[in-house]
Write a structure and sequence with these properties.
Structural class: alpha+beta
Strand content: 15-25%
CATH class of the domain at 101-207 and 230-242 and 251-265 and 310-403: Alpha Beta
Strand order of the largest sheet: 1-2-3-4-5-6-7-8-9-12-13-14
Mean pLDDT: 78
Low-confidence stretches: 17-37, 214-229, 280-298, 300-308
Largest sheet: 12 strands, antiparallel, barrel
Helix content: 10-25%
CATH topology of the domain at 101-207 and 230-242 and 251-265 and 310-403: Tubby Protein, Chain A
Number of helices: 8
Number of strands: 14
Length: 404
Amino acid sequence: MSFRSLIQEMRDEFGSISRHSLRSRSHRGGGGAPRVAAVGPAEAAAMQQSCWAQLPPELLREVLVRIEESEAWWPSRRDVVACAGVCRSWRGITKEIVRVPEASGKLTFPISLKQPGPRDGTLKCFIRRNRTTQTYYLYIGLTEALADDGKFLLAARKCRKPTCTDYLISLDMSDMSKGSNTYIGKLRSNFLGTKFTVYDAHPPYDGAVVSKSRSARVVGLNQVSPRVPAGNYPVSHISYELNVLGARGPRRMNCIMDSIPASAVQEGGKAPTQTEFPLSGLDSFPSISFFRSKSARIDSATSQLSTQKEEKLVLKNKSPRWHEQLQCWCLNFRGRVTVASVKNFQLVASDENGPTNQEQDKVILQFGKIGKDLFTMDYRYPISAFQSFAICLSSFDTKIACAG
């Protein structure tokens, strides 16, 4: 039995119970015209939740496990999200069943976008650019095609300032303002467009220190918990090498991941994993009603970066090879990039983080052009979709002192 037919059958059953209860009340007064008891919104909601919550936990868990296993890809995976929004008991069990992207390779709830990608394999996404509105939209592919209708994940809007450029990142494609409840972070460049900082609006790990920049996000006390202040938490620093003479060659970039220890790329290494959004205006966003906790929680096993003062993970370009016949620099994107562009890149762990002085072979993030305003973005552990999107946005920015 499919999920939709199962839910419809349960709704019909509970609906008949409710109708029967109302009919009983209407005839309870004896003679005279039947009267329907007035039920307030709060009482009606309580009755509905109690009906759904009265399912035996063992049966409910079995049903939810089967739904989670059968709905592996979007758009059918929205059924899993729907289960989490039924009532408190359904939400609790669904939360236990759904695994993080690191283990499952799936993006389910919005918090998944802040969690590291899969260890085995990559998550294949793509970015659409709108030159007119200076906006960028991140989608996860629904098929093996380079780009399809996709499932929307994140949006960004470019904001030019006299001394820098900001890319505001949001969960809502229709509202990308910094004061929005769905604002989750930003990318900021310097004047030359050669150095960037990625800021998370929420603490990326336990003990993270908020930036004291004057541009820190101002939020009313009624919007966030005083225990989890919203602000600019630096999670990555990106730099492009100066190339004033415009020498032939691809861009060279370096990414220091402030929130990820260098040991994360090693066997058994761990990266900080956020498990819930802090209490904030995000709770009022319809598509993420699943998250209504009273405080931010971070995986305790991976939140020791600040206390242990480990070496930070450093990502750099994978070295391309010069192709004599094509007369260009080439990288093997395995069919995921089809148009030559100075923006194309592959990032690997720097040799500073490896056991030897050899360049790491495993590509952690790759980005490349496939159309005029269409680009692929594939990422994996230990970086998240949010971090990957921000790094790719840096490639779009105009670089006065770099070639291309």
